[in-house]
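Ligand-bound model needed. acetylphosphate.
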Amino acid sequence: MSTSTRWKKRPEGSTWGDFGPDDQLGRLNLLTPEKVKQGVAEVKEGLAFGLSLPLDYPGGAKLNPRRKPPDLRPTDLSGDPFMNMPLRRFDKRNTDVVCDDQVNITLQYSTQWDTFAHVGSWFDADGDGEPEKVYYNGFRAHEDVLGPGDLKLASCGCGEGGSYALKLGVETFAVKAIQGRGVLVNLHAHIGNTRERVGYEQLMRILDADKVAVEKGDMLLFYTGFADVILSMNKGPDMKVLNNACATLDGRDEKLLQWVTDSGVAALIADNYAVEAYPARDTEGDAERAALPLHEHCLFKLGVPLGELWFLTDLATWLRAHNRSRFLLTAPPLRLPGAVGSPVTAVATV
Ligand code: UVW
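Prediction:
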């Protein structure tokens, strides 16, 4: 392990270096054995809630044209699709019938984790006056996070057109496993289905009204109702409705960003598209800054993973009916080396 940082300057208000010069886990370091025990202490009924949408929702590619629904196919041996395949084809004595499939999946199409390799920034980490493309803790584009054409791609067995996060990839989250205490904020109970950008003041009012306490190392989940609207569209998302549906966090609100820093939350998760409003910018002639300020703050500066498009409805309904907000959250991503995001089938246990 190196003792010196890979940067000379760190972004103002960042945690770079605080968890060590080589850290790739950020605030997930706060998911200590103590934190897991605090989560386990919230298991009183033994009821488990699955927190994933069907991974073929939202449906189509309208929510984000780059992201396509999963394409599921049988594996195939010399042109024979392995679906309902009688193994007697290979040996007359075999009685087995076998199905075996594969998927081409956009990792951030549906319920997902964003890693710290998902969003970085132009920043002068070398202190030489020239900004470069850099990620959490000073990891570099083209050196640590590789894309098409990067020479190092060959070292990870990728073809020229491939991509591979040598550092900050989702496998680091998978090895950590991501388990601890979850705390749910029910924004939908206060805001309903109207689009509202929730800033610091409003969030504090809601936490206060619902007596929700957030402590260092908690994973914080926001139920907005957005995933319910998506589900109601039956894989035909209507962007006119979705662009104006349900609460989002206001990433432009500096006080909210400061609260994310001060609260010590280990992860931010929502049932909506990007946790924050996207695009955040809504005025012409705005100053130069991130299109996704909460992403920049969490993924680039603090090392706080973002969970998006989770299915929180059943959990939120149960918690509200039982006057509770805390639970055990278990949410490992796929252990897929080199990926910058991952589907997640999280479980909340109350
Ligand atoms: C975007 O590219 C908008 O990413 P995310 O899935 O994090 O919202």
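The first helix runs from residue 33 to 40.
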